[in-house]
Amino acid sequence: MHAVEVKDLRKTYAPQKGQGSGVEALRGVSLTVTEGDFFALLGPNGAGKTTLIAILTSLVRKTGGHASIFGVDIDRDRSLAKTYIGLVPQEFNFNIFEKVIDIVTTQAGYYGIPRKEALVRAETLLKGLGLWEKRNVPSQTLSGGMKRRLMIARGLVHNPKLLILDEPTAGVDVEMRHGMWDFLRTLNAQGTTIILTTHYLEEAEALCRTIAIINKGAIVINEPMQQLLQSRGEAKLEQIYLDLVKQEPPL
Fold first, then answer.
1. pLDDT tens, 16-27?
2. 162 in helix, strand or coil?
3. How far is CA 100 from CA 57, 110, 150, in A?
4. pTM of the predicted model, to two decimals?
5. Helix (H), strand (E), coil (C) string for 30-94
């Protein structure tokens, strides 16, 4: 089964006051993410990554096309589709005065999970992410890396089948980044499908089995990571990426 299936997805944002036309953020994007995959969605700033994720998570309405999560059409049954997804956004968006444990258990409550069960799940996640000793402190006291891990714990508390990570290691030191990689590899090995957006190309190369690159609202490549690397000889992913985003995407 496909965890994500997108066909001819389009999004045009309404024009700003004084502008003649809107902004075409997605221009007929089609891709699939296989259940259980670790999938890299890469592209420069403004390429359409955030818009695509926002549509999949029902934060933005598409202009046209089709999108489904584990076979559930996001328009026909938006509520069910959302239960399958755990989103870890790039920006911190929790209450900085709230305790770590409460941030995670409150999120569980939004999915109807009883507090007793939520506490068990939170303990497992916070221990796995090295945050258990910080469970009773206000989140504002955490380091940047710890806040990133808290976002992951919150995104996983309802046991989603799909985890979407938007720049999860931005500003995180090398040691902590590798610890997060280990956690994500284990999570993926246990069956959770993961979509990763990152500007750290070595991160995508180390973790992901499939890669899609989006540029100017269009997919310019979508194939297995090792196939892409082998087809370009000795080139590193960074050089391949730079070469591809310089090209004009197909209309």
1. 776 667 788 999
2. strand
3. 24, 16, 7
4. 0.93
5. EEEEECCCEEEEECCCCCCHHHHHHHHCCCCCCCEEEEEECCEECCCCHHHHHHCEEEECCCCCC
User: Which tens digits make up the pLDDT trace of 200-240?
Assistant: 999 999 999 999 999 999 999 999 999 998 888 867 888 88
- Averaged over 127-134, what is the pLDDT? 94
Mean pLDDT of 34-57: 94
Do residues 38 and 188 lie in contact, with contact meaning Cβ atoms separated by under 8 Å? yes
Polymer length in residues for the chain: 251
Q: Long-range contact list for 200-207, CB < 8 A, 24+ apart?
A: 200/169, 201/42, 201/236, 201/237, 201/238, 201/241, 202/237, 202/238, 203/169, 203/177, 204/40, 204/42, 204/237, 205/229, 205/236, 205/237, 206/181, 207/38, 207/40, 207/181
Burial of 26 per CB tally in 10 Å (0-12, 13-18, 19+): buried
Question: Bridge partners of 162?
Answer: 85, 193
Closest CA to 192 of 168, 164, 223: 164
Nearest alpha carbon to residue 186 among 110, 125, 100: 125
Q: Give percent above pLDDT 90 in the chain.
A: 75
Three-point CA angle 109, 111, 115, nearest 5°: 30
Dihedral over alpha carbons 161, 164, 170, 175 (to 10 degrees): 20
**Residue 170: predicted pLDDT:** 83
Residues in Cβ contact with 246 at an 8 Å cutoff, skipping those fewer than 6 apart = none
List the end-to-end C-alpha distance of the chain, in Å, as a whole number: 29
